[in-house]
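Input C-alpha cells:
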C-alpha cells in the first residue's frame, strides 16, 4: 500500500493558513502557492539517490555526494497544477514538465480530459503529479490512468489540500501510489468542495471569479 505523507513543517502550515484565507488576493495567493510548492519539493525529494564522487576542495581531496541522475517529470493537472510547477522547478530544474488538462464537470463532478502531452521516455521517468486540490479524487485518478496507459511505471501524487474521500479513492484504485499533502481536511461539501479548504484553486490562482 502506498503511503500518505502530511508535510506539517511550520513554514508550510503558516503559508497554507494565508492561502486558505478568503481575504488573500490573487497576487499573494499565487506567490504563496509557489512558495509552498518549493517547500514541498524539498520534502518530496528526500529519498533521491545520491552517489559518492571525489572532489578537490581548496584544502584537500574528499569524497562527497551528488545526485545520481534520476529522471524526473512534474505533471501539473491544468489549470491549477500550473501554480505549483515553477515552485517545484526551482529545486528540480532539470525535471521535464508533462501536462494533463482536466476540468471537473460541475454537474457530474467527473473529470473531462482536454489535453495531454508527455515526454517521450515515459517508462524511465519518475512522475510527480501536482494539483493544489484532491477532492473527490476523480481528477487524480484520471491523471494517473492517463500516465499508466502511456507506460509510466513510477508515479507519485502531490497536493496542498486533500479530502479524506480523495485519499481513499486513490488508495482503492491505485494502491501503490504515494500521496504527499500539506493538509488533510475534514470532508467534502454537497458541491464537492473541500471543507474547510481554500475554495476554487484555479479561480483563486488566475483571478477568474
Ligand atoms: C480542481 C482542482 C483539481 C480538481 C479536484 O480543478 O484543481 O484538479 O478540481 O477535484 P476532484 O478531486 O473532485 O477531481 P477544476 O476541475 O476546478 O479545474 P481548473 O483547475 O481548470 O479550475
Ligand atoms: N476543486 C477546487 O478547486 N476546490 C475544491 O475545494 C474542490 C475541488
Amino acid at each position: 500500500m502506498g503511503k500518505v505523507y502530511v508535510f506539517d513543517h511550520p513554514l508550510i502550515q503558516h503559508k497554507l493558513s494565508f492561502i486558505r484565507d478568503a481575504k488573500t488576493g490573487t497576487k499573494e495567493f499565487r506567490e504563496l502557492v509557489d512558495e509552498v510548492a518549493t517547500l514541498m519539493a524539498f520534502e518530496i525529494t528526500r529519498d533521491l539517490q545520491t552517489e559518492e564522487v571525489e572532489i578537490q576542495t581548496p584544502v584537500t581531496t574528499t569524497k562527497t555526494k551528488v545526485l545520481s541522475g534520476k529522471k524526473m517529470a512534474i505533471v501539473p493537472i491544468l489549470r491549477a497544477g500550473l501554480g505549483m510547477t515553477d515552485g517545484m522547478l526551482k529545486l528540480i530544474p532539470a525535471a521535464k514538465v508533462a501536462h494533463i488538462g482536466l476540468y471537473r464537470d460541475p454537474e457530474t463532478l467527473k473529470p473531462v480530459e482536454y489535453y495531454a502531452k508527455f515526454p517521450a521516455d515515459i517508462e524511465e521517468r519518475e512522475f510527480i503529479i501536482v494539483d493544489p486540490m484532491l477532492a473527490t479524487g476523480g481528477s487524480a485518478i484520471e491523471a494517473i490512468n492517463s500516465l499508466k496507459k502511456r507506460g509510466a511505471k513510477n508515479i507519485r501524487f502531490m497536493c496542498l489540500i486533500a479530502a479524506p474521500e480523495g485519499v481513499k479513492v486513490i488508495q482503492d484504485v491505485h494502491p501503490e501510489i504515494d500521496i504527499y499533502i500539506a493538509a488533510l481536511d475534514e470532508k467534502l461539501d454537497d458541491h464537492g468542495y473541500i471543507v474547510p479548504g481554500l475554495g476554487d484553486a484555479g479561480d483563486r490562482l488566475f483571478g477568474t471569479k
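DSSP finds six helices and 13 strands in the chain. The pocket of uracil (ligand 2) is lined by residues 133, 135, 192-194, 197, 200-202 (CB under 6 Å).
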